[in-house]
Write a structure and sequence with these properties.
The complex is a heterodimer of chains A (about 260) and B (about 725). Chain A is mainly beta and about 260 residues long. Chain A has one domain: Jelly Rolls (Sandwich). Chain A contains three helices and 15 strands. The longest helix of chain A is centred in the first third of the chain and has 22 residues. Chain A starts with a helix and ends with a strand. In chain A, about 45% of the residues are buried. Chain B contains 16 helices and 34 strands. In chain B, the strands form eight sheets. Chain B has a seven-stranded antiparallel sheet with strand order 1-4-13-6-7-8-9, with no helix packed on it. Chain B has a seven-stranded antiparallel sheet with strand order 2-3-14-5-10-11-12, covered by helices on one side. The longest helix of chain B has about 35 residues. The chains are: A mainly beta (about 260), B alpha+beta (about 725). Chains A and B meet through β1, β2, β3 and β10 of A and β1, α3, α5 and α7 of B.
């Protein structure tokens, strides 16, 4: 009888284990073989104890004339060992950081972030983005992968999704409804495939979102918070939105190319 | 008989057809008659639009519908020949048009003329014209429109949606359309109808119920339907709208405008141009974007660095140095900038400048390999001797100077070295040195023999020393001589500028209570004192960029040599202990960081450097904040007993500074003002006019405020006063008493 019970337990636990593995990512398959040593990569990791002007340029990109006419950079500060970004009210507002260096070849990057979405209807969007942006083409016509958290104005739900822009054309990936987010976002490129993953705080495993075919070339990486999606042309923005970023890490990178200045 | 039956049948058909038409006509007329308590047409007429021009006061450009998975762009929207034309661009998802800035409440009846000629064989795209009534919370939608999916046939449709999901939909096949679409709401029931050109009667498209609330109206065009996942869009889609009319409504509400707490500035949008430059495929395009960013925000450091690098790569060393130096003056902490400046000067054979910039680079990042390599190259080219020191005052050739024990003596001279002078000390006291090597220091003299030792070091650490002996004797004060008082300050100054900054509400630092009050009080006092160009910057406006832009861009461009500038700052200050000894003082702008003030605050080095760009002959910095590391010279300047004293000192350049206290001291407050500012205002009332000539000089101000504020605060706060350069005196003119 005991043997039978033990067998049932083993079978059930094996089945459960198999099911669980099916839900999460086999991160072993995302291992990058050709990488710089951690001793060199460590310089580029940022725990946001101070603002590293040697690594980052402040970002805040505007997409159309309506946004340009009423835009304010979001407030950014380093506090409690995190980067805080808070949008302004009454206008289009965005703020974040873009790397001063480029990464060439395979890479594996991640950043922790935390956003609590405002509930209810707002005449603004709530958008947090982690992106790997191909260099050498104008913005809008570039090759970029975005891993984003979004609550669009008028919607009563928020999502996590990833999307790839290739030659300016969007290729939509998967999306899930989420509530607030406190966890890590990750982008891994191996060869001509780029993967997007996320992990909520406390989760043991990464959850894979998408795999896109991506032209291998130099990329700038960045993350930002903004109160508008690309094509929004009017805004009220009665409230600020706030997000924090922490522990940016380059887990692996084939080559990091420093700019002259 | 059969003929009679036939004709009776025909007559019946005609009658039925007539009755049906009549019924339809009366039902459409019923829309308007059923809307009770209409606003008068006089009130509605303002919102009717014949599209003679694009009226931004009643419409705004938008995506029209907020739902759908596709990320899309707004199409081209313009008014032409008295019609609203919307045209999609090719190669992309496009949807948009106009939505109303007003809302309709209660029952309403609206219509719009439109024309849509569908593109045949459109290929991989759809064609969609939209007339939309949506509740302002974007939950419910009524959409009347014309659609053609890819290569299928066109149709006219009406649909009712909740959160983007269709609850009901009516449609029928149709060809190209030229006519009028209409939406009527009575209670919560919506009726949609159409009338094609030439028709007399309205034809119903669909009826729905369940749409409550205030309604926003939209007119739009799209080249995709909601479920399309990819698009080719080889051809544009075009539609025309005209004669939008509100036939009746119970109420119209105007959109409440919500503005940012402070207006956006060029410095908000400049980073977007910077990033355009970063991703430009052509270097010339990138250069253009960076220059536009500088035009928008002259205090934005990063574009100067990249423009400098653009010139460096082009081989234009002069322009490269110009832009790199501007970035350095603005306070860049980019170690690569200083390395590149150093390498440019090294190529020019200017090893002193190369060494100076290289030290800055290594101060910021000591292990930067390129800087370390360049350092060894420079050291090979440089000297091993200490600076050459020449003393002007006291002159050793004139022998001993007789001074009282209460008097100071000014030690003035020049130190020069081909590697650049690093520091000068007089009697072990740090002494400021200008870029030419001039130095000036007050030294107390006691009765008896006094030895004055001047030490100097170059940037490589080579040192030299010069000493001189002075005999101090008792000295009786001379009687006060009458000095010439100018009839008015205009005799001595051209224009009088002031920049007054007060920050209570910091983004990251603790809030202050009275800084803004202080700034406002100072402004009023300056007005009374003859200042005619006063710029007041308070709280959120007082960002690092704004202050630097003022000092770096506006003042140097607008001021002239005979002008004076008074700069007042009430807010936090900070002192940094430098790793190699010494201190560096900062004033903290509203967006200054708590830990990283090196990059986000404004240092005394910057203030000193920016002062040299301002052509004014007299500059006075009054900082109601506590910090040290000013690098001050407390020389008394020219003696007031000489004849034509005011004219002499007013003709000599000077930059003076006073701060409310030193490192670690707490600013005290009194009666709604900071203690320092309270006594500063009293000083300008005449309390600091020691010789009663109705002029308060910068030195008098320092001599008054230092003991007065120190005593009043119980020695908790002792102002620091001194000169950053020059021997003249800043003059405040007070009313005669």
């Amino acid at each position: 009888m005991r043997k039978a019970m033990a067998c049932v337990i083993v079978i059930l636990s094996t089945a459960f284990s198999a099911f669980f593995q099916g839900c999460v990512t086999d991160t072993a398959s995302l291992k990058i073989e050709k990488t710089m040593p951690q001793s060199k990569l460590a310089y580029y990791n940022d725990s946001f104890d101070k603002f590293r002007t040697d690594l980052w340029d402040k970002a805040g990109y505007i997409h159309n004339e309506a946004q340009k006419a009423n835009f304010k950079l979001a407030k950014m500060r380093v506090e409690d060992g995190r980067l805080w970004v808070q949008t302004e009210t009454g206008c289009f507002s965005a703020g974040g950081l873009g790397s001063k260096y480029t990464i060439r070849g395979d890479f594996d990057i991640q950043v922790d972030c935390h956003i609590d979405f405002l509930e209810g209807d707002y005449d603004m969007d709530q958008l947090l983005v982690f992106a790997a942006i191909g260099k050498g083409k104008e913005i809008g016509k570039d090759d970029t992968v975005f891993l984003s958290l979004l609550k669009k104005g008028g919607r009563d739900f928020s999502t996590i999704f990833s999307v790839a822009r290739k030659n300016g054309r969007f290729h939509r990936g998967d999306w899930y409804k989420i509530k607030d987010f406190d966890g890590s976002l990750r982008i891994v490129r191996i060869g001509d495939e780029i993967n997007t993953l996320f992990k909520r705080k406390g989760d043991a495993e990464w959850k894979k979102m998408d795999t896109f075919r991506f032209t291998p070339k130099d990329i700038i990486l960045g993350f930002k918070l903004q109160n508008f999606v690309t094509n929004r042309t009017s805004i009220t923005a009665r409230s600020t939105i706030t997000a924090t970023f922490d522990n940016f890490k380059i887990n692996a990178a084939e080559e990091i190319v420093e700019e002259d200045i | 008989m059969r003929k009679i039956e036939f004709w009776l049948f025909v007559l019946c058909l005609i009658c039925l057809s007539f009755l049906a038409t009549k019924a339809r006509a009366s039902s459409s007329e019923a829309y308007t008659t059923a809307v009770q308590k209409n606003l008068p047409q006089a009130q509605i007429a303002h919102y009717n639009d014949a599209f003679e021009k694009l009226r931004d006061n009643i419409w705004k450009r938008s995506g029209v519908l907020p739902f759908g998975k596709n990320i899309f762009q707004i199409p081209e929207i313009r008014v032409q020949d008295g019609r609203l034309l919307i045209k999609t661009r090719t190669g992309d998802f496009q949807r948009g048009g106009l939505t109303s800035r007003w809302t309709l409440k209660g029952d309403f009846d609206i219509q719009v003329d439109c024309r849509m000629d569908f593109v045949d064989e459109a290929g991989d795209m759809d064609q969609l014209l939209l007339f939309v009534a949506k509740d302002k919370h974007t939950r419910y939608f009524t959409v009347v429109g014309l659609s053609k999916r890819s290569d299928s046939k066109p149709s006219i449709f009406a649909t009712f949606k909740e959160k983007g999901e269709p609850l009901s939909r009516k449609w029928e096949r149709i060809g190209d359309f030229q006519g009028t679409l209409r939406i009527v709401r009575i209670g919560n029931k919506i009726t949609t109808s159409r009338k094609e050109r030439g028709d007399l009667e309205w034809k119903e498209i669909g009826k729905f119920s369940g749409m409550p609330g205030e309604v926003v109206v939209g007119l739009g065009l799209a080249n995709f339907l909601a479920n399309r996942t990819s698009i080719q869009a080889d051809q544009p889609v075009m539609a025309a709208f005209d004669n939008f009319r509100i036939n009746s409504t119970q109420e119209i509400s105007e959109e409440v405008k919500f503005s940012p707490s402070t207006p956006s500035t060029g410095c908000d949008t400049a980073p977007s141009l910077f990033w355009k430059g970063q991703f430009a495929s052509q270097k010339e395009d990138a250069f253009r974007y960076y220059m536009e960013a500088i035009d928008l925000c002259p205090g934005f450091i990063r574009p100067y660095e990249l423009v400098g690098n653009y010139y460096r790569k082009k081989g234009n060393k002069e322009k490269a140095i110009e832009f790199f130096t501007k970035a350095a003056d603005l306070g860049s902490v980019n170690y690569k900038l200083y390395y590149l400046l150093a390498s440019l000067f090294f190529q020019e054979g200017d090893f002193d400048e190369a060494g100076r910039y290289l030290n800055k680079s290594l101060d910021i990042r000591g292990d930067y390999p390129k800087s370390l390599t360049l350092k060894s190259k420079i050291e090979k080219e440089r000297d091993t001797n200490g600076p050459k020191i020449i003393l002007y005052e006291p002159s050793t050739r004139r022998g001993l100077n007789l001074v009282s024990q209460h008097q100071n003596i000014s030690v003035r001279g020049i130190a020069t070295d081909k590697s650049g002078v690093s520091w000068v000390k007089v009697n072990k006291m740090d002494t400021p040195v200008d870029k030419h090597g001039n130095f000036l220091k007050d030294v107390p003299i006691e009765v008896g023999s006094n030895t004055i030792v001047v030490e100097a070091a170059d940037r490589l650490g080579n040192q030299s020393t010069l000493s001189v002996t002075i005999e101090g004797k008792d000295y009786a004060l001379p009687p006060i001589t009458k000095v010439e008082i100018p009839s008015q300050e205009k005799d001595l100054y051209g224009k009088s500028f002031a920049v007054v900054i007060g920050i209570n509400s910091y983004e990251k630092w603790p809030s202050l209570e009275f800084a803004v009050n202080d700034a406002k009080a100072i402004k009023e006092k300056l007005k009374e004192s003859g200042f005619d160009q006063i710029t007041v910057i308070l709280d959120k406006e007082a960002t690092q960029r704004r202050i630097l832009t003022e000092l770096f861009h506006r003042l140097p461009e607008t001021m002239e040599h005979n002008d004076r500038l008074f700069f007042y700052f009430a807010g936090h200050g900070q002192t940094e202990d430098l790793p190699k000894g010494g201190k560096k003082g900062y004033i903290i702008p509203v967006d200054g960081d708590v830990s990283n003030y090196g990059a986000t605050a404004i240092s005394m080095d910057q203030i000193r450097s920016l002062s040299s760009r301002i052509p004014a002959k007299h500059i006075f910095y009054a900082m109601d904040s506590c910090y040290s590391g000013l690098g001050l010279n407390r020389s008394g300047g020219v003696s007031p007993e000489i004849s034509d004293y005011l004219r002499k000192i007013s003709s000599m350049r000077v930059v003076q500074i006073i701060t409310a206290g030193g490192k670690g001291e707490q600013v005290q407050e009194k009666e709604g003002h900071g203690l320092f500012t309270t006594y500063f205002l009293q000083a300008l009332e005449g309390e600091a006019d020691f010789n009663k000539d109705n002029v308060v000089t910068g030195t008098e101000l320092g001599a008054y405020l230092r003991p007065t504020v120190s005593n009043a605060s119980g020695q908790a706060q002792t102002p620091l006063y001194g000169r950053l350069e020059g021997e003249g005196e800043f003059l405040f003119f007070i009313e005669k008493k």
